[in-house]
Amino acid sequence: MGNKNLRRFFILPGLFLASTSIAADFATDTVTTMNLSDVVVTGTRSASNPSLLSQTVTIVGHSEIENSLRPSLLPVLTEKVPGLFTTARGVYGFGVSGGAAGSISVRGLSGSSAQVLSLIDGHPQYSGIFGHPISDAMQDLMAERVEVVRGPASTIYGSNAMGGVVNVITRKMLSDGMRTTVRSGYGSYNTLELLATNQLRYGRFSSTVSASYNRSDNNRKDMDFGQFSAFAKAAYDFSDDWKVQAEANVTRFEASNPGPVTRPLIDADQRVTRGSVALGIDNSNDVSHGGVSFFFNWGHHWINDGHVAGADPRLYRFISDDDMAGISLRQNVSLFDRTLITVGADWFRYSGEAWNKFVAGAQNGQRKEIVDKYQSELAAYIELRQRLGAYLTLTGGVRVDNNNGIGTEWIPKGGFSLSLPSEISLKGSICKGFRYPTLREMYMFGPANPRLKPESSISYEIGYSQSLLDGALDYGVNIFLIDAKNIIMTVPNPSGAGNLNMNSGKLLNKGVEAQVAYRINRPWSVDMNYSYVNMKHPVIAAPVHKLYAGCSFVDGHWNVSTGLQYIDGLYTSVQPVGEENFVLWNLRVQYQATGWLSLWARGENLLAQKYEINQGFPMPKATVTGGVKFTF
Fold first, then answer.
1. Chain CA centroid to CA 498, Å
2. For residue 42, what pLDDT band results from cuts at 50, 70 and 90?
3. Parallel, antiparallel, or unpaired for β 123-124 and 143-150?
4. Is the Cβ–Cβ distance between 38 and 14 less than 8 Å?
5. Do residues 160 and 114 make contact, with C-beta atoms less than 8 angstroms apart?
6. What is the value of pTM for the model shown?
7. Gap between the Cα atoms of 180 and 285, Å rounded
8. Where are the beta strands (DSSP E) in 34-110?
9. H-helix or E-strand containing 155?
């Protein structure tokens, strides 16, 4: 990969959102057009020069995603993003309910607790009832790149961005023509992968259409997984100033949960459908840029939680329907010398209905309601970025966010960016993050507590980075501290029998992250990242140490990449304490046989390590998958 691709996955200091290529350039006090790889778009809700921003972000570019040869985005994010870790339970498929995986943690704050926000082109993607993303819907078929904010982004995005943001930027053809890619593969445990993508651009119109089917028996009996996904996007540039785009995606999967090895389950099956649609209109001129977007996502879940051997089968099935709708407005305006003002407003409405449908017994055919609720949020925010002199940029902002059932939160942020000679960048920020309790935590099942308060955190961070050798070498270090309170936990009910969800938890996480990327010569490049998180209160699925070292060779017909990942201090349980330590070696090889045909192979856990990420779910040892790719 070239120098720009090296920078695309390397940690760039900054916070980012939107997909325009217009950025405020305070060095010249003008708004200029920049190459997409030179800007970030998650955070200020419009493309910005990363050197002017105050928080830390990682960009995983399209080449890294494509070369990983994985249908899911989460494994490549785990490799390339320091401080980020995702859980797994088998060869393929994350599932939902008991035994589910796919949780994203950032600096010890967990996506399974809805503390990390997942977006597609800036639109929230999570269950209206449970509040967390459905990881099986995060597929490579739609992704041009992924931008990851490490640290609170609640001033811009509100609830759930307490620990960070994962924003999938979808694909778009930039030059006239048509390109079609078909990829197929087969491997260990009867794993099948099929993907087809068509991209088109004609004048001001562009489109992307993708579909995929993936399945696997996985490495345990009764752990089958099958999934179909489709994505479509169309965009039209009315002029240089006005653009519109619409997109839709749907994912349908069926999964079987074998349960932990110490307590296997029978007939624990799940059928889940998730979908989303969005429409966005962007504007830009010499002094301002912004837009408005509308989105709607929904899901239908059918779950049989199964039974252990010797027990009677469950008489009912859990069924839920949820949806989330929203409107977001944002506008960046440069009214004064070296000043950029960002204003925005969001309205979200999320709702869910869940019930048990009896399929046997005396109540056969009847329906028992569990929850039927909705909540709405209305928020406004403002951010001011001021350039002082040739080197220093100051940033400050605040958001006021009201939830109709919980109350109002004020979310401030502040920071600086110092661009020094010799390509040195120094960043610092203080940010508040927060999360509203979910409908499940407030109204569903035994521990439900409608009086829950929002979780909140204060994050302190400072980062140093430098680019050397004409951009061939990039390195950086970040130090952070997160102080969180009112964490929602299930504890014994102080006023009676059973358990209750309460704001009784605290987190104090501090750590360091480091990364380096070096292009040795035209064919060879290496990269490495490391993160250490000291957690006063241990968090499940958040490793203390995470190290990844990778190497790639691209020359002629060959594209080869390999990497070692070391995980230490991964908590699989805290009462009693269970920890995992392991080393994984992965290898990917592609051979371009002709201009339209390439052969590929992927090997994972080639050291055949024995380990678990979800307690009771042993991961597969060495696996191999291979296939062909057609491009025309």
1. 35
2. low
3. unpaired
4. no
5. yes
6. 0.91
7. 34
8. 56-60, 84-86, 104-106, 109-110
9. helix 154-157
Q: Peptide bond before 576: cis, by omega within 30 degrees of 0?
A: yes
> 144-181, pLDDT tens digit by residue?
999 999 999 999 999 999 999 999 999 888 899 999 99
Highest mean pLDDT among 126-135, 328-337, 449-458 belongs to: 449-458
In the numeric block, which tokens belong to residue 555? 């020359």
- What is the distance, to the nearest Å, from the Cα of residue 54 to the centroid of all Cα atoms in its chain? 20
- What does 218-262 look like in DSSP terms, one character per residue? -SSTT--EEEEEEEEEEEEESSSSEEEEEEEEEEEEEEE----TT
In whole angstroms, what is the distance from residue 442 CA to residue 130 CA?
10
Q: Is 169 exposed, middle or buried (0-12, 13-18, 19+ CB in 10 A)?
A: buried
Rounded Cα–Cα distance for residues 605 and 9 (Å): 23
Q: Residue 519 in 3-state DSSP?
A: strand
Q: Whose structure tokens read 């493309």?
A: 47
The length of the chain, given as a count of residues: 632
**Beta carbons of 202 and 231 less than 8 angstroms apart:** no
Q: Which residues contact 398 (CB under 8 A, 6 or more apart)?
A: 155, 381, 382, 410, 411, 412, 413
Q: Tell me the chain's radius of gyration from C-alpha atoms.
A: 24
Among candidate residues 602, 601, 608, the one with its CA nearest the CA of residue 622: 608
Q: What is the pLDDT of residues 512-527, one digit of tens each?
A: 999 999 999 999 999 9
Residues 345-399 pLDDT 10s: 999 999 999 999 999 999 999 999 999 999 999 999 999 999 998 899 999 999 9
Picking from 212, 276, 288, the residue whose alpha carbon sits closest to that of residue 246 is 276
* DSSP-derived secondary structure letter, 40: B
Contacts of 365 (CB under 8 A, 6+ apart): 358
* Burial (Cβ within 10 Å: 0-12, 13-18, ≥19) of residue 323: buried
Is residue 337 over pLDDT 90? no
Q: Evaluate the CA torsion angle 12, 16, 21, 27 in order and state its sign.
A: negative
What 3-state DSSP class applies to 594?
coil
